Amino acid sequence: MKKAELALREDIIARCREMNSSGINQGTSGNISVRYEDRMLISPSATPYDQMTPDMIASVGLEDTSGRYEGPLKPSTEWRFHQKLLRGRPDAGAVVHAHPTYCTTLAIARKEIPSCHYMIAAFGGNNVRCAGYATFGSEELSELAIDAMTDRTACLLANHGMIAIGENLAKAMWRAIELETIAKQYYLSLSIGGSVLLSDAAIDDTHRGFAGYGLQDDAGKETPKPKRRAAKKPAAKTAAAKKPAAKAASAKKPAAKAEAAAEPAAKPAAARKPAAKAAAARKPAAKAAATRKPPARKK
Fold it and tell me: Confidence class of residue 210 from pLDDT cuts 50, 70 and 90?
């Protein structure tokens, strides 16, 4: 197995686990596929994500509609609409299907998501359609899903869930999470009287603004401009270069030491102490003078 294919298989597993940890899916009801050369790599059917390994990912030819696959486990039961989207949509490099709570709630009510928020433009138009109902895994469901996805990058599936596509798996997952977010916002707005919808002109403005917005591929990113702070670093070094001047200032301290060295000039005062001692030494002579007092007269 080539490194590129292994990396995609590992990414599928990581994103399956992300679906559940982010709350946009529960159990093993979601499934993910990625285009690889002329084949589709897709998560296996009814396999717990935490037990999934790269070799378990099924491989299906994009042009083979017979249901044949390579791998130890069957592909997801929804492989048909995954295959149709990857085969018929050049802009689709990956497909995410899940059963998020709010998307599914609206799908149960057979409600599309209208232009209640400018982020609706992230899905290709001024709404996210709700496809009609058909049994899961059926050819009929795949046809209904493809119709609802015309000129769109996401749709709801009546009484079922949602689908989102992207140029790569990261972009498809980003759209899936954004779709559940806007579905929640729309649902909550219905509980307080409904939404004030944006005009088509407003959504068109958003489409134009999206040219440089959202999750970008490396190829689409602009070369980052050098930060100004980095340019200021030499100036900071110049400031650092001034430190020797400070050192020179501190070099003047010996002069202060020289002044301190002058203190011995004050010591002669202390040196006079021996003279004081000499004066004290004269005290015995005073005592001797005291001994010369005449004897007291006898009474």
Answer: confident
Read off φ and ψ for residue 221, nearest 5 degrees: -80, 145
Selecting among 78, 167, 178, 180, the annotated active-site residue is 78
Q: How far is CA 222 from the centre of its chain?
A: 19
Residue 143 annotated to the active site? no
Q: Is the pLDDT of residue 212 over 50?
A: yes
The residue type of 13 is I
Of 4-8, 63-67, 264-268, the one with minimum mean pLDDT is 264-268
β-pairing, 58-61 vs 130-131, is unpaired
Residue with tokens 């232009």: 115
Q: pLDDT tens digits, residue range 161-208?
A: 999 999 999 999 999 999 999 999 999 999 999 999 999 999 999 999
